[in-house]
Amino acid sequence: MPSRQYHTKSRHGCANCKRRKIRCGEERPQCRHCSKLGWKCPFLESDPQGGSIVQLYKTGPASKESWSEKPGRVATGGFSRPAEDLHQFDEELIKQYSEATSLSISDRADVGLTFQTGVLDVALKWSFLQHGLWSLAAMHLRHDCAPELQSLYSDLASLHQDKALEKYIPQLKAITKENCDALFAFSLLLPPLRYSFLMASTEPFGAQEFITEMLNIFDYLVGATVVSTEADAWLLKGTLSQIITIRGLGSIIPQLTEEPKNALITLMSYISDLLGDPEGHGRQSPSHTENSRRLSAYKHSIEMLSNLFPSGDTSRRYLDATIGWPFFSGPDFIRLLKQNDSIALVILGYYGVALHSFRSIWWLGGLGARLVEAVSRVISPTYMQLLMWPLEKISSNGELPSGTDRLVNAALAGVW
Q1: Helix count (H) and strand count (E) of the chain?
Q2: Omega of the bond leading into 29 within 30 degrees of 0 (cis)
Q3: 3-class secondary structure, 1
Q4: I want to staple 149 with a disulfide (CB 3.0 to 4.6 A). Which of 84, 145, 272, 336 is the partner?
Q5: Among 89, 12, 91, which residue's Cα sits nearest to residue 45?
Q6: What pLDDT was estimated at residue 22?
Q7: DSSP character at residue 73
Q8: Which helix (H) or strand (E) segment is 75 a member of?
Q9: Which DSSP symbol is given to 7?
Q10: What is the CA radius of gyration of the chain?
């Protein structure tokens, strides 16, 4: 006769789980079992305590007013929370990171498990990495929580991020065998973390401002590049070797499924026709040399884009390549983006389509669609027709996003 399995009781489980006589995981804002069944979880109603953050929000400190008058405080929705009390939420954030957030960083199961276990082990030795993990976990909780708690989790995430960066940046100046795993793991956390902050922002970004914010996030990839370049041999032999998965990307345009293949070929052909053959004979003028350099940067970025779209190999996982695309596109292309080069911005719009394909991931959400729309509002009308495919791909109902149909029609008619 098999032995009976025992488990610890859930003292604050939701009413649905108690009714089904199963152990509630007490995940917030709804437990895992209710989420799987598509039920509305009555967790907050069934648990008067609601966990440390919910309880603090409901009751507040003994003297709320005194907090905002002292240094080292961070304002939140409804009251101010002292920075020195940051660790009172650690248990909640550890649970969130280990059970959910760690598995959302990559679309590869093995990489997710490495973040869940290996990265967590490294974080025990390096406080900046630990703060980074808790910051991302807080933003994950913010994404799923009730509206009245969102500012609390945002502030908690900001506090952890600030403490992480304060200790991370000095460590970058001296990369060693001892700190390289922690530095590399943290540098990989930065893009999801910054994307989650951008997605959660309530600031009314204009199109150009939004693109600038995206380019700022691209700059965070430099940290991962520096660490992986200087500590390659150590990383490959270390705890996190499983994470180092992308090497020597090349063009796979011929292997793509028909729609993205045709879109990228059309884009590449248009750009080549526009700038001419870079292999021209005879003495080259400065303008011809600059065109050659630009064309090379455009083509390389498009070739790297090919790694972000579906191919005949259904086993491919390409979230990591999608997040890393700004790095793989090269500094010349990023320079063109920062100069608001119209063709580079069009290519950025195609990148928005790749991001949009991962919109179900909580830290990306609708950023891809917002990027395509932003590009459509800042590029020269001359290139608007090139954005037809990206605009159609981000549309959920086959129609162009609101406002962009006028831009496209005007461009096609030659009227602006």
Answers
A1: 21, 2
A2: yes
A3: coil
A4: 145
A5: 12
A6: 74
A7: E
A8: strand 73-75
A9: -
A10: 24
Asked if 345 and 126 count as a contact pair (C-beta separation under 8 A), the reply is no
Which H/E stretch holds residue 259? Answer: helix 258-275
Residue whose tokens read 């009308």: 381
Number of neighbours of residue 323 by Cβ within 10 angstroms? 24
Half-sphere exposure of 220 (CA within 13 A, CB side): 21
Query: What one-character-per-residue DSSP string does 156-203 give?
Result: HHHHHHHHHHHHHHHHHTS--TTTHHHHHHHHHHHHHHHHHHHHH--S
| pLDDT at residue 24, rounded to an integer | 79
Tell me the C-alpha distance between 234 and 147, whole Å. Answer: 44
Residues 6 or more apart whose CB falls under 8 angstroms from that of 330 comprise 297, 300, 301
Token representation of residue 345: 């911005």
258 class by beta-carbon count within 10 Å (0-12 exposed, 13-18 middle, 19+ buried): exposed
CA 127, CA 239: separation in Å to the nearest integer?
A: 17
Candidates 56, 54, 17, 11; CA nearest to 36 is 17
In angstroms, rounded to a whole number, what is the distance separating the alpha carbons of residues 278 and 376?
28
Taking only the tens place, the pLDDT of each residue in 247-287 is 667 899 999 999 999 999 999 999 998 887 544 444 455 56
Report the C-alpha gap between 61 and 407 in whole angstroms: 53
Residue 390's nearest CA partner among 359, 353, 365, 355 is 353
Torsion sign, CA atoms 143, 149, 155, 161: negative
Closest by CA position to 122, among listed 54, 76, 188: 188
- Please give the sequence-ordered ranges of beta strands (E in DSSP) within 332-415, or none if there are none: none
DSSP structure string for 209-251? HHHHHHHHHHHHHHHHHHHHHHTHHHHHTSTTGGG----S---
Q: In which element (H, E) is residue 74 found?
A: strand 73-75
> What are phi and psi for residue 359, nearest 5 degrees?
-65, -15
> Residue 56's pLDDT is what?
41
* C-alpha closest to that of 246 among 377, 111, 409, 368: 111
